[in-house]
Structures are given as C-alpha cells and as structure tokens.
Design goal:
about 270 residues, 6-stranded mixed beta sheet, 6-stranded parallel beta sheet
C-alpha cells in the first residue's frame, strides 16, 4: 500500500505502455518488503525539461529511468554525465546527488551484454550487425566495441544518425572494422535490433526481408523491443534456427545496476552493512 512514507522512482517515456521496468521493480520491492514503488510516466518531449526541474525538488523520488524517445534529450538537460553517457550523449538512468545536481548514466549496453552472456554469446573477435543507431543502439554498439567485437556493421533509416555513431566509434575504437549494411548476413555472428521496429506503429522488421533471408542459423539474434516480447524479427530468426534474445531479458539483466544507480536497490556493500 502506497503511503506518505513510500519512496517513489519512475520510468519516463512516450509512449510508456511497452515498458517492463515497473513490473520488474515492483515485484522486487514487494518480495523484499521495501516501502518503494516505481511508476510509469508518459511524458511528451516538450515537457521533459520541466519534469527534470520538478525532480530536483521531489523529495521522495531519488531518481528515474529513461526510455524512448527521451534518452538523448535528457542527457542534454542534466548537470553531469558519467564518461560513458557523455561519449554516447544519451542516458537511461538519472539520480539526484547529495548536492542536488542530476547525474545520468547509460546502462543499456551493460544490460545487453549480460543478457547475451546468459545465452553463451561473447563478442570478442566476432562480427555483428546493429540496426538502429539511436540511444539504445549507440549504447549497445559502444559496449560491443569495448568488449572486443572485431567487425560491426551499422544501419539506421536516418543515415546521418548512422554516420554520427560510426564517427564516434571510429574515434574511440580504431581497431574495430566499421561498415554500412552488408549485402548478406551469412557471415554475421550477432544481429541486433536496436530500433523500435516490431513495436505497434512502426515497421514490422528492422531490415529488408530480402536481406533477412540470408540469415544463418548460427547467428545470435537479439531485439531490444519489450512489447511484443516475440517480435517479428525474433519469430523469423527462430524459424531459421537462430538463438534469440528478447527485450525483457535485457531489461531484467540491467535492473540491479539501474536500481543501485538511482538509489532504489541497495548496493552489495549496503546490503551487507
């Protein structure tokens, strides 16, 4: 039961119906008998700045999660960013510091790799294709490069968005071979949809069907979309015999780190103190 003593955290996005974080966090809070609650906030882009200003004075809210389409907009409105978030110019978590400033980090890449590792996929020396070079896609690409991916092909419907990410990665990871969309997927070890493709109101598939027909059964296929869980891409990949990774798996994999960052979940040393 929510009361005046309840500590509140939020996830902001537009739309918000697809998010899984409130379900994950609230189950955890209930299981641990914590007087905390996560609320979903559907907020229009033009109102995000006012929301962040309200957060500064919101005494029983320690932080927020950020989902599409606000990850890059929020990054530009905060007082400070972690080095990772600064390089990516995007955040998916925001916390209030003791001095009242707002700090953001980007944990999508970490969550993605934790979920992939659970399927036995390790990026070092592999070849990957990422469709969708916005906030979540950029974080995944950065994480893959940090983990030693050998080749990374990038695709986005907006080529300027793709080019910005390629330039950023080329500057920081000169040993990674970066390219545009290939003619075939037969040599790809990992295919990631980091775009909204598959969600209601968007294209069903993140890549042309003719290109997807070249998908090899040895490829690990991952999607960041959380609703539906079994996206058209994952359904197609399953039919091809590929291993598949869902959006909710990524969300759950990074839940603990996100919760610790915003002060909703105790860090290991706090839990044992």
């Amino acid at each position: 039961m929510v009361s005046g003593f309840t500590q509140v955290v939020a996830v902001i996005g537009h739309p918000i119906t697809q998010v899984k974080s409130p379900e994950n966090f609230n189950h955890f809070f209930a299981s641990q008998k914590m007087d905390k609650v996560m609320i979903p906030v559907d907020i229009a882009p033009e109102a995000v700045a006012d929301y962040l200003n309200a957060l500064r004075g919101w005494q029983n809210m320690s932080g927020i999660l950020v989902t599409v389409p606000h990850k890059q907009r929020v990054a530009g409105l905060l007082d400070c960013l972690t080095p990772r978030a600064r390089h990516l110019n995007a955040v998916n978590v925001v916390r209030k510091l003791a001095d009242g400033r707002l700090e953001g980090d980007m944990l999508d890449g970490v969550g993605f790799q934790r979920a992939a590792a659970a399927h036995g996929f390790q990026p070092a020396g592999k070849r990957a294709l990422l469709s969708g070079c916005g906030g979540v896609g950029s974080a995944i690409a950065w994480g893959l490069c940090e983990a030693g991916i050998q080749q990374l092909a990038l695709y986005d419907r907006d080529d300027a968005t793709r080019q910005r990410l390629e330039n950023r990665l080329a500057t920081h990871f000169p040993n990674v071979h970066l390219s545009a969309l290939p003619d075939s997927l037969t040599e790809i070890d990992l295919l990631v949809n980091g775009s909204p493709a598959g969600m209601a109101g968007f294209d069903a598939l993140p890549l042309p069907p003719s290109l997807l027909e070249t998908l090899a059964p040895t490829t690990h296929v991952a999607d960041v979309v959380t609703a539906p869980v079994n996206t058209p891409l994952l359904a197609f990949a399953h039919q091809r015999g590929c291993s598949t990774q869902t959006g909710p798996e990524m969300a759950l994999a990074q839940m603990q780190l996100m919760g610790q960052f915003i002060g909703a979940i105790p860090s290991p040393h706090e839990a044992t103190a």
